[in-house]
Structures are given as structure tokens and as C-alpha cells.
What we know:
Layout: H1 2-34, H2 55-62, H3 69-100, H4 106-117, H5 125-134, H6 141-150, H7 157-165, H8 168-176, H9 181-189, H10 194-210, H11 213-219, H12 228-234, H13 241-275
Amino acid sequence: xxxxxxxxxxxxYIVLGIMSLLWLFPIAWLLLQSFRETPxxxxxxxxxxxxxxxxxxxxxxxxxxxxxxxxxxxxxxxVAIASCAISTVIVLLTAYAFSRxxxxxxxxxxxxxxxxxxxxxxxxxxxxxxxxxAFGLVQSLFSLVxxxxxxxxxxxxxxxxxxxxxxxxxxxxxxxDGATKNQVFxxxxxxxxxxxxxxxxxxSFISPxxxxxxxxxxxKDNYKNYTIALGLYQMLSRENITKYFTQFCAGAxxxxxxxxxxFIFMQKYYVSGVTAxxxxx
Length: 281
């Protein structure tokens, strides 16, 4: 029996090792291409470059006449941070209200949000564009912040599940001692909810950081307000891909670094937030 379990464990590790290699291969290829000296487009004869250079990285910040990577990076950072802050507050307030408060419309509202969340966001992007255009907000970074944080309340389920795990007796004891519900939320529940706060922050930050669809519809030809996803895509156009593909790879590597570092340093909190977030009714 013990030998059988050891064989199964060995087989599991082998399968996981193969899957890891398959997952890491595109990342390794992208990294290697970012150091390739001679631009050859997306198709190469060998995995490893013949000669290595760091010019692809330096050109992103020095040769900005056609592709203003620093400006796009700053735009993405501004939009991601602003959207993250607004979305995190909205999600936590919504989740806490549904977890702790009992009111007549609670169940219907939760059901409506659940149904609306089943529809992909890009289905509404044309309507959103015309609404923003009516208010004169298109092609601005502010419009992107509104779009990314506008539907944040529909992602409350994980946070609500976490708040459900916090004993109500803590709230009741604080209320007996004279605390208001507002104080209970900010001074008691939130300090106990660090994992789900980290989870919400990461999720709220990633969406605007990597989004391409909404920004391409809203920004149109406003080149200076592109975010990094749309900006890098311009390097892959038919007339640019041969010359700028290696710079595209370098830009893709750089844009992945902040997200990677966030997950590395906040991984344990992220996992805790997910595992404790089974939503209850």
C-alpha cells in the first residue's frame, strides 16, 4: 500500500513538472526574445538569440517618437491605482452590508447582481462608450477609472464569504460597549479581514492593468492616453511587427514585473482570502 502511494505521488510530481515546463516555456521564450539583438519579427529559427543586447529595453524609454512607452506605463499605473482604490472600497462596503445587515431587498439585490455578473462586461461596451460620449468623458483616463470601478460591486461574493466567517458575537460585544455599526466595520471587521482586503486589492488592480478591450473602444485614436496593453499592441501591427517585435517583448516583460512582485509578496494573504471566501446566503 505504501509503495503504491509513493508511485502515485511520483507520478503526480512528474505530471505537475511537465505542466510547469509547458506553462513556463512561453514566458522563457518571451524573455529570450526581449534580449535578441536583430529584429526578425515574431518568427525565429532558434529559441536562443544569436547575440544578446539590452537595447530593446533602453529604446522603450529613449525612442518615444512613435511608441511612448513611459507615457503609457504612467497612464496604466494611474488608472490601475485609482480604480483599485475605488473598487476596493466599493467591494468591501457592499460585501459587509450583505453579510451583516438584514433588509427587505437584500435577497433580490443579491440575485440581480448574480444574474448581471453572468454577462461578460464587453457586451455593454458600445452602450458605455455612447454614455461617456454624451457626458464628454471619452478618450480620458477618468473615463477608464469610471468604467473599471463602476461594476466593482458585482464582485463582492468572495469578500462577503470572508465577512460571514467573522463571528457576529464580536460585533454584538462592540455594539454593547457603545460602538456604532460604522465603527464596528472600520475598527473591528476590517483589521480582521487582511486576507480578503489583499485579495480584493489584487483583483481590482489586475483588471485595469491588463485590459485591452475597453481601452481600445474608449480611447480610439487618442494616442497619448493609451494604456500599456493597447500601446504595446500597436507594435504588432503589420507595418511594425518586424522592426519592433523585440521591443514589444521587452515591454511585455517590464509590464509583468509589478504584478509578479505583488503576487510573490502577497501570495499567502491572497490564498487565505480565496479559501475563506465561500459565500454564504
